[in-house]
Amino acid sequence: MNKGLLIVLSAPSGAGKGTIIKKLMDDDRSLKLSVSATTRSPRPGEVDGEDYFFLSREEFEDLVKNGEMLEHAEYVGNCYGTPKGPVERWLEDGLDVILEIDVQGGAQVKEIMPECVSIFILPPSMRELENRLRGRSTEQDEVVNARLEAARNEVHRAEDYDYVVVNDEVEVAAEEIRTIIAAEKHRFSRVSSIVERVLIDA
Amino acid sequence: MNKGLLIVLSAPSGAGKGTIIKKLMDDDRSLKLSVSATTRSPRPGEVDGEDYFFLSREEFEDLVKNGEMLEHAEYVGNCYGTPKGPVERWLEDGLDVILEIDVQGGAQVKEIMPECVSIFILPPSMRELENRLRGRSTEQDEVVNARLEAARNEVHRAEDYDYVVVNDEVEVAAEEIRTIIAAEKHRFSRVSSIVERVLIDA
C-alpha cells in the first residue's frame, strides 16, 4: 500500500474551511482529519482522541521537548498542537491526513515534513468575507474589524502555500481540493518506486 | 483570460503516448498540440503549419541562433525542433499547449521555460512494452532490441519529470493527465494575481 499524503489546509476565518472539510470527509473514506492535542479541559460531550487529545501541560510540554509535535501554539493560556505519532501512523496506513491549521502552524509543519502538500483557501473577496463575518457575528464592530484585519494578514501568507483554492461555491472548492490530492499522487518524488518496478519487471 | 499551461509529455516508444494524446485532444478544445518545425521535405498529404512547419535549413538555423527554438535536435540528417513563437501565442490565448517530445527535448524546454509542467508516461512494465514493440513490429529482433534498450534508458530519465503516469488503460491515463493539468492551475505561482484581486476588492 502506498503511504498517504499529508495535506495542510489553511484559510482566514470566514473563508468556509470548516464546510469544505466536512464535504471532503463525507465523500472520502481514505481521508482522515487530524486530531489536535490541547491542555484545555474537555467541554461537555467532547471525546478524548476524537475532538482532541486532552493532555496535561506536562504531557504536552514533554511532546514538544521530544520533537513529537508537528506544530504547536499557546492561545489564551492553553496549549494546542498536532502530535506527530498519530499522523505518521495514519499516513503509513495509506490514509490522506488533513491538518486544519493556521498559517503559523502550516509553516512549522512544512519545516518538519516538507513532503506535505499545502493548500490555502481564499474567500471570493474581502468584501464577501466581511459580509460572512458580520452576518454570523453577534459581536461588536471592533471585534469583527480585528478579525478582518487578521484575515487580511493571513491572506498575504498564501504565498507560502503550494496551491490556492477560491471558495466561491463549496462543492466546486471541495472538488478542486480532491483534484489537487489526486494529481499530487503522481508526483515523481512519490512514485519513484513505480519507476523501479517497471524497470525490474523486464 | 488566464495564460495557458505548457505541458511537456514524454514517453519511451511503445508506451502509448500517441493514443493518450489523441484521447486528450478529442475531449478538450482548450488543449493545443504543438507543431514541430523540420527541415525534411513534406510527405504527400502533409500540410505546412499543421503536421510540421517546413523550413529550409537556413531558416531553421536562424531560429536556433536567435534563441527562438524551445528545443531542437538532428535526426538522420534532418533538423527537428519546437519554435517558441507559436507556443507563446497559444499560451497567451489561454490554450494549454502539449509538447510531445523526447527526454533530451524535455530538458531543453525546462531550461528555457521552467514554469512548464512535465509528465512522463510509463508502460505498465518493460515486459508489456516489449510485447507491444514486438507485436507491432515487422523489424528484425536486433532492431526491436535496440528500441527496448533505448526505452530502458529513457525510463531512467523519468526522475527529471514533475509527474509520472502509468499507461495501463488509455482512458485512465488520459484522465490522470487531465487531473494533473487541472490541479496545476491552482499552483500559487500561477494564481498570485487572484490573491491580489481578493485583497484589493475590500
Brief characterization of the structure:
2 copies of one chain form a homodimer. By secondary structure, chain A is of the alpha/beta class.
| Annotation field: number of helices of chain A | 8
Number of strands of chain A: 9
User: Would you list the SSEs of chain A in sequence order as H and E?
Assistant: EHEEEHEEHEHEHHEHH
Distance between the termini of chain A: 22 Å
State the major sheet of chain A.
5 strands, parallel
Oligomer: homodimer
Query: Which blocks of ≥5 consecutive residues of chain A have pLDDT under 50?
Result: none
Largest interface: A-B, 38 and 38 residues
Overall shape of chain A: it is: globular
Order of strands in the sheet with most strands of chain A = 2-7-1-8-9
Structural class of chain A: alpha/beta
Radius of gyration of chain A: 18 Å
How much strand of chain A? 15-25%
The average pLDDT value of chain A, as a whole number, equals: 92
Give the % helix of chain A.
Answer: 40-55%
Overview of the molecule:
Two copies of one chain form a homodimer. Chain A is of the alpha/beta class and 202 residues long. Helices cover 47% and strands 21% of the residues of chain A. Chain A contains eight helices and nine strands. A five-stranded parallel β-sheet of chain A has the order 2-7-1-8-9, sandwiched between helices. A four-stranded mixed β-sheet of chain A has the order 4-3-6-5. In chain A, a hairpin with a 2-residue loop joins β5 (69-75) and β6 (78-83). The longest helix of chain A is centred in the C-terminal third of the chain and has 16 residues, at 141-156. Chain A is globular and about 65 Å long. Chain A starts with 5 loop residues before the first strand and ends with a helix. The mean pLDDT of chain A is 92. Chains A and B meet through β8, α5, α6, β9 and α7 of A and β8, α5, α6, β9 and α7 of B.
